[in-house]
């Protein structure tokens, strides 16, 4: 199951929701200001990152700039508590499934969350177009 976490209803969040819905992806969306992340959810997200906190934290956000100390100097318990109480420092949205994580709305990374069956139909449609067959499978490209 795909889960989308957001802390503000931005254009990126709206685009990601619409894109996933239009591409047959089954997902849940949760406002983490209203329902804060659990410790386990934060640790799970961190385990999916390549660059640790750099993949999750928006260093350009006002909330991040207002922090009294650097996130890099925090221990894990302090970091988890900070992310639970200050979700505004996180990138928006955060999309996760069993083994992938993406932040923001980027077509290249969000495509990984589309069901394989849909991607196969889309690929077959592209091949038909490339081969000059006029009839496609009614799959719209992203």
Automatic annotation (TrEMBL):
One Pfam entry name: ArsC
Recorded superkingdom: Bacteria
Sorted UniProt keywords: Disulfide bond, Redox-active center
Claim: Zinc is one of the keywords in the record: no
Protein family: Belongs to the ArsC family.
Name of the protein this chain belongs to: Spx/MgsR family RNA polymerase-binding regulatory protein
């Amino acid at each position: 199951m795909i889960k989308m976490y957001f802390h503000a209803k931005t254009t990126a969040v709206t685009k990601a929701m619409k894109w996933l819905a239009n591409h047959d992806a089954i997902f849940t969306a949760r406002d983490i200001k209203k329902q804060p992340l659990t410790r386990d959810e934060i640790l799970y997200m961190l385990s999916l990152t390549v660059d640790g906190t750099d993949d999750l934290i928006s260093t350009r956000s006002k909330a991040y700039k207002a922090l009294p100390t650097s996130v890099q100097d925090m221990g894990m318990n302090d970091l988890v508590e900070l992310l639970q109480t200050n979700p505004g420092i996180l990138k928006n949205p955060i999309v996760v499934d069993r083994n992938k994580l993406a932040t923001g709305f980027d077509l290249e990374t969000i495509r990984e969350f589309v069901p394989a069956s849909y991607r196969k139909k889309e690929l077959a449609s592209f091949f038909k177009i490339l081969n000059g067959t006029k009839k496609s499978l009614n799959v719209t490209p992203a």
